Amino acid sequence: MSRHVDTDNESTRDRLVAAAIALAEREGPASVGLREVARLAGVTHGAPYRHFKDREALLVAVAEHGFRELLDHCLAYEPPSEDGTGRDALTRFWRLGVGYFTFAIERPGLFRVMFSPEAARAEALRQSEGAVFSLCVSSIVSAQRAGQVAAGDPQLMALVAWSAMHGAATLYLDGLVRWAGLELEPEALARELAAQVFRGLKA
After folding, report:
1. Contact by Cβ (8 Å): 105, 188
2. Which long-range contacts (CB under 8 A, 24 or more apart) does 131-137 make?
3. H-helix or E-strand containing 165?
């Protein structure tokens, strides 16, 4: 692979993050290292250190990118709603769960980096994580106002829903869903899981 002159800092940083994502998707998060990423991005071995002080900083940048992608993916599952009430509120809540699950299945390497120990230690990611969580909270609040979800702390209820979909996605990635005898396709499984969670929250 030919080397590129490192003249555009932003472009080089983006290329390094993209290379790290590609490695994580192809070989898993453990494969992501500064030298490996530099080689894949086509830059010198020293180039990553001008953008990331160490491997953990690179993984945090990858995770931040991942949360932005996750937010966009979940928003793509949201139907338009004029007032955020009634059936639209419940449909929005349901589609967020499906969006979250399918993102994890479609981008497993990136998903695992997003919830890696390195990402968990990074305070800089709290805002990116919170943006996704806020979608769930706001959809619960809308459904509560419509009388279609039980009264209660919407943040706690959102945490229950998030835990259910995140745990199910992790089990699926680890092969334990098929081990349990469930052969549904990912999106079909996500729809059923989301429906079960929402039934538990109904008024």
Report:
1. no
2. 131/67, 131/71, 132/67, 132/70, 132/71, 132/74, 132/100, 133/158, 133/162, 135/71, 135/74, 135/75, 135/78, 135/96, 136/93, 136/96, 136/161, 136/162
3. helix 154-173
Residue 83 has pLDDT above 60, yes or no: no
- Mean per-residue pLDDT for 20-35? 94
CATH number corresponding to 1-52: 1.10.10
* pLDDT band at residue 32 using 50, 70 and 90 as cut-offs: very high
Model pLDDT for residues 127-152, shown as the tens digit of each residue = 999 999 999 999 899 888 888 889 99
Tell me whether the CATH fold assigned to 1-52 matches the one assigned to 63-201. Answer: no
Q: What is the pTM of this model?
A: 0.85
CB distance 144 to 84 below 8 Å: no
Q: How far apart are alpha carbons 157 and 155 in whole angstroms?
A: 5
Q: Which CATH class is domain 63-201?
A: mainly alpha
Other Cβ atoms closer than 10 A to 203: 10
